[in-house]
Amino acid sequence: MQQLQKKLAVDFGIDFSDVSLLETAFTHTSYANEHRLLKISHNERLEFLGDAVLQLIISRYLYQTYPQFPEGEMSKMRSTFVREESLAGFARACGFDRFLRLGKGEEKSGGRNRDTILGDLFEAFLGALLLDKGIETVEDFLYQVMIPQLEVGNFERVTDYKTALQEMLQVNGEIAIRYQVISESGPAHDKTFEVEVLVNDQALGRGRGRSKKQAEQAAAKNAVEAGN
């Protein structure tokens, strides 16, 4: 933690008063579970808080920066900016991945490079920073790290294929789109999901992913590409 504290101070001018918040933000559930006797806290609650403050700050940024944009357009932009793949990219850019505390099993399975884990870490850090320093410091940090990259478009752009499929199919009216898990494989810490996307019980595409969310996106991508 000392190296992390030094990095935060040098790179971002941040000095945590409550270091335990910082430790919790960088502790994955797998590490806490492997050290149950020590009663170590993991970062899921801080992730919840960080997600909320991130949404607020990005929403305010979009509202102030793009006064001509309607609500729908701003919502699309925000969803692109705060996708787990984009947040994982910012976590890597900050060097946060090096300080993440993972369980041995998660480490061996490549968890340190997994977008879901790193995106959650970035949000958990924001939650810890909010509690320790307040929302203005969180905003200052995001304006150092995130906003400049958003303004030049230098972030990981990931197509939201679920939205693209929905828009493609609903041109002539509402259509019920359903995603169904058809298989799960692998150990609990490293599962692979296979998902099928259906309309009126007709399968349009299948996809695999390390999470249900990723598998759904893969299935939607398959369906979009098949329909083009």
From TrEMBL:
Function statement: Digests double-stranded RNA. Involved in the processing of primary rRNA transcript to yield the immediate precursors to the large and small rRNAs (23S and 16S). Also processes some mRNAs, and tRNAs when they are encoded in the rRNA operon.
Active site: 51, 123
A Pfam family matched in the record: dsrm
UniProt record similarity statement: Belongs to the ribonuclease III family.
GO cellular component: cytoplasm
Binding site for Mg(2+): 47, 120, 123
Residue span of region Disordered: 205-228
Biological process, per Gene Ontology: mRNA processing; regulation of gene expression; rRNA processing; tRNA processing
Entry protein name: Ribonuclease 3
Keywords assigned: Cytoplasm, Endonuclease, Hydrolase, Magnesium, Metal-binding, mRNA processing, Nuclease, RNA-binding, rRNA processing, rRNA-binding, tRNA processing
Subcellular location: Cytoplasm
Main location per the UniProt record: cytoplasm
Quaternary structure annotation from Swiss-Prot or TrEMBL: Homodimer.
EC nos: 3.1.26.3
Biased segments, Low complexity type: 216-228
InterPro entries from the UniProt entry: dsRBD_dom, RNase_III, RNase_III_dom, RNase_III_sf
Source species of the chain: Streptococcus zhangguiae
MF (Gene Ontology): double-stranded RNA binding; identical protein binding; metal ion binding; ribonuclease III activity; rRNA binding
Domain RNase III stretches: 1-134
Catalytic activity of the protein: Endonucleolytic cleavage to 5'-phosphomonoester
Main EC class the enzyme belongs to: hydrolase
